[in-house]
Design brief:
Shape: globular
Strand content: 15-25%
Number of helices: 5
Mean pLDDT: 89
CATH architecture: 3-Layer(aba) Sandwich
Strand order of the largest sheet: 1-2-3-4
Number of strands: 4
Low-confidence stretches: none
């Protein structure tokens, strides 16, 4: 298993930019994850990990949660996500993906799935 590597300055800057430009689904989910609201676990938003930026990351649970917009459902998007998920799994992390629509329309079920994972 690979170890988490320090992120580079470009990823750090990009993650800061992404925190300023969140989607409605990311904002909603963050409102439930931040400040240890979900079972007392600390979460990070737009966290650089290895060569990518995770939407949400809980180090204690080794869990990444991704909020996927429409671009993730194209062939190229799915292929890119598979590669990215494999890289994160090589670091010992689990990845959960939810569509933005699912987060917005089924928030309780999404939170329960994260809680039980």
């Amino acid at each position: 298993m690979k170890e988490l590597t320090p992120y580079d300055a470009e990823l750090k800057q990009r993650s800061q930019e992404l925190r300023q430009k969140t989607t409605e689904a990311e904002t909603l989910l963050w409102n439930f994850l931040r400040r240890k609201q979900l079972d007392g676990f600390r979460w990070y938003r737009q966290k650089p990990l290895a060569n990518c930026i995770a939407d949400f990351y809980c180090p204690k649970r080794k869990l990444v949660v991704e909020a996927d917009g429409g671009q993730h459902f194209t062939r190229d998007g799915r292929e890119y996500d598979e590669i990215r998920d494999s890289e994160l799994q090589e670091l010992g992390l689990q990845v959960l993906r939810f569509s933005n629509q699912d987060i917005l329309e089924n928030t309780d079920q999404v939170l329960e799935r994260i809680r039980l994972f």
